[in-house]
Amino acid sequence: MGRLEPEVFRLPVERIRAGYYSDAYFNLTKELLEAEGRRPRVTLQAFQKENSVLGGIDEAVAILKECSGRAERGDWLSGWDELEVRALHEGDEISPHEPVLEVEGDYSLFAHLETVYLGCMARRTLVMRNVREVVEAARGKPILFFPARHDHWLVQTGDGWSAHVAGAIGVSTDAQASWWGGRGVGTVPHGLIAAFGGDTVAAARAFAGRYSGQMNVTVLVDFENDSVRTSLEVADALGDALWGVRLDTSESMVDRALWMDMGASKPTGVTPELVTRVREALDAAGHERVRIVASGGFDAAKIRAFEALESPVDSYGVGSSLLRGQNDFTADVVRVDGRDCAKTGRGYRANPRLEAVL
C-alpha cells in the first residue's frame, strides 16, 4: 500500500508549526535549542507496548513533512530535506516496543511535533486494532463501522480510514469514507420510522423508492419490538428492493419473538435465538435472500459467541466498542551525534522492517 499524501489530511499546518497543539515543554525545547544555536543530530524512535495494528503512520509522516523546520525573518524554512525518516506502513501488525517510526536529524527541526504525531498514531492504532479484532472474530462476515455518534465529529475522517484499512466493509458517514473516496452507508433509521407515524413498512417503502438504486436498502425492524413480524412485513412489501433487515433490540428489552422462551437463556437485546427466529421466518416465507444485520452492544467477544453458535448473521454493525481502550505511543531520543544516549531503561532498537520515507 502506498502512503497517503499530506494533502489528504488537511493539516492546520501553520498552527502545528507554531506549536499550538504541542505540549509546552516541546515548544520550549525547540525555542531553547534555536536560541542557544544547538543543533544536535539525534535518532528518535517511536513505539507502543501492545501487540497491535499500526494506524496513523502516514499522518505522522505528513506532519513531519509539512511542519518540521524553523522560522526565520517571518518565513518558514522546511526541515524535511534535512531529516532521514524511516517508518512502517498503515495496517502493519506490530509488537510491543517495536519501533514504528525513526527520525534522524537536527532535533531543533522537529522537537515541537512529538505530541501531534504520537497522538495521531495512538488514536488511529486504537481504532485499527479494535476493528481488526472484530473482523477476525466475524470470520469473514462483513463488519459495518458505526461509532460516529459516540465521539467528536473531528475524529471521523481518520477513524474511518483506520476502520477501512483494518477490514471494515462499510462506514456510516461520508467523512469517514473521504480518504479513499467512498461514501457512508446506512439503514432506514428509527427516526424516519417515527416520522412515518411508527409505520416501518411505510418508511421502508418511501426510502426504497428513493434510494434503492443507490444503495443496498436495509431496514431496522425493532421499532415495535416485534422483529419477526416486522421483518416479514418489510420483506413482503419491498420484494427485490430489500437487501437486508437490521436487528437492534435494546439490551434492556426482550423481543416479542422470545417472550415464551424467557428463562431459558439471557433473552434481552439481540440474541442468537432472535436471529435464528428471524432467519427461519424469512426462509419459510420465501425470503431466503434477505440478509440479517445484527447490531447493538457488539464487540469482539459477543461476535465470537454468536459465531461459535453458527448464528445466521450475515453482517455485524459495531459501534462504541471500537473506540474503547488505549494504545499509547512513546518516543525517545536514543542517539545523539552518533552516540547512544537515552534515558535509563530505553535504548536504540534496530528494526529491519522500517522503510525509508522519501
Order of helices and strands: HHEEHEEEEEHEHEHHHEHEHEHEEEE
Structural class call reads alpha/beta
Strand order of the largest sheet: 15-14-1-7-5-16
The CATH class label of the largest domain is: Alpha Beta
Could you give me the name of the CATH homologous superfamily of the largest domain?
Answer: Aldolase class I
List the main descriptive attributes of the protein structure presented here:
34% helix; elongated; 358 residues; 2 domains; nicotinate phosphoribosyltransferase; six-stranded parallel beta sheet; TIM Barrel; alpha/beta
Could you give a quick summary of the protein structure above?
With 358 residues, the protein is an alpha/beta fold.
Describe what you observe in this structure.
The protein has helices at residues 13-17, 24-36, 57-67, 114-137, 156-166, 174-177, 190-195, 200-211, 227-238, 272-284, 300-308, and strands spanning 41-48, 52-53, 69-72, 75-78, 84-87, 93-94, 101-106, 143-145, 170-171, 218-220, 244-247, 291-295, 315-318, 329-336, 339-340, 355-356. It contains 11 helices and 16 strands. The protein starts with 12 loop residues before the first helix and ends with a strand. It has a 6-stranded antiparallel sheet with strand order 15-14-1-7-5-16. A 6-stranded parallel sheet has the order 9-8-13-12-11-10. β12, α11 and β13 (315-318) form a beta-alpha-beta unit. It is 34% helix and 18% strand.
